Request: fold
Amino acid sequence: MKIIARDIPPRTVWALEQAGVHPLLARLFAARGVRAKEELDDGLALLLPPDTLHGTREAAALLADAIAQDKRLCIVADYDCDGATACAVGVRGLRLLGAKNVSYLVPDRVVDGYGLTPPIAERVAASGADMLITVDNGIASVEGVAAAKARGLQVLVTDHHLPGPELPAADVLVNPNQPCCGFESKSIAGVGVMFYVLLALRSELRRRGVFDTATQPKLDALLPLVALGTVADVVRLDANNRRLVAQGLRRIRAGAMPAGVAALFKAAGRNASVATTFDFGFALGPRINAAGRLSDMTLGIECLLTDDAGRAEELARMLDGINRERRDIEGGMRDQALLLAESLFAADGDGIEAPPPAISVFDAGFHEGVVGIVASRIKDRFHRPTFVFAASAAPGKEQELKGSGRSIPGFHLRDALDLVAKRHPGVLLRFGGHAMAAGCTVAREHFETFEKGFAQVARELLAESALTRQIETDGPIAREYMRIDLVDTLHREVWGQGFAPPTFSEEVEVVSQRLVGEKHLSLKLRHQGQPIDAMWFSHTEPLPPKVKLAFRLDADEWQGVRRLRFLVEGAEF
Reply:
């Protein structure tokens, strides 16, 4: 592991300080590309205009006509947190804007697989719907859209995933990553795309005289859901996404949120009045995702749709229980996957056992709903692009393996799969995804061919330097900033993918260390001559007396007293 410091432009720091930004924040923002205080303005007026997202005008006209004709609308969602929040935003928003018949359908991960398939289209048509609307999926559903159109359905696709070589023949496509779209925020989440469609629809309804600016519904009530889905989907927090998240957080902290969001905070033991992006990513998001992984995402969507506080708490408790089960399953799978990954190690030129350039593992006992999480854990442990496979539990498809992959910087996972598919025709039955996360299906008999082909692509495309994990930090932290109030200040800001949370690095003295719960390292350190406690979660190897650490600032509360501590992210020996 190598700890490196971000470049911090001193003139930009000075300019931000002169504009009134706190000196520590000025340093952090400058290191993340912020050049002027105006870029930190999270006002809704500064959101990218909806009409710059290609297809929103056409989508708005299509939906406005459907509402006027009292058509039956059915949303087809995805089974992750982005899909669930996008579905809830779509249902709530369309109803706010006058749609009387809005339903939804979420595919079963095991039986249906991902996206709008022909059988899903048949089920929507059989339900009596007139229009099918996808959220967080659909851009690759060429056959599913064709099946829906053949049954006489109008089809609106809203998605953010990368398109394949052929676009579906929907009535309207809204996706910032389709070739003709100049929308600046290419990393907007699926829930953000649906929110933008609703903004455009409201404008269209104003134009038609259904509302005016005084009587139009307030769509900002949907922003807590937009913020949750955006962070949970780990999309890059560009300026537009940060504004969406900041606005959602502001409303949650003020107590203005759907009953289900409030219930999820309670179930997770988190305080909504001081909500952070960490709560979205590590508390609420996993509980919603657990429903799609092990049970039925309908539970998660219903939790986000209900306005009954009692029902919301009941559903949130159920989601919490499913998430506990998911953690248990994940733990056993992770241990087995680590053993399988280590069996792939080979001696390098110095005789040291090292992992291959990419890792693919499969075990007959793996649960397909958890393969993505385990792939992420293996990737973090060995710093290699990783796929974890499980046998499909779908009837008649027992010989198919479903894989979920996670990547490292410098290796585009979907493009790598495309290359494997071209070199080994017929091995990949289906695949899709992003640069950092992707999924695929292979026949069990072809697993070894995939494993070797994927490793070969990584061997060719990854430089040796990319195979060493690097932690970017903000360098040392001055003693004057070692205060609880500044921890709270930092936590209030919007951090996440592409706008990394503050991580500092310095050499410290290790005074004492002990294992907690057999899997966490509790430390007493001396930092700049002063004692400080620290925790390194999911790490058991002891540290030398002096070591350079990468760490985040945190507040630990014990018996009502809050104390500063470090959360260790990595060490350089």
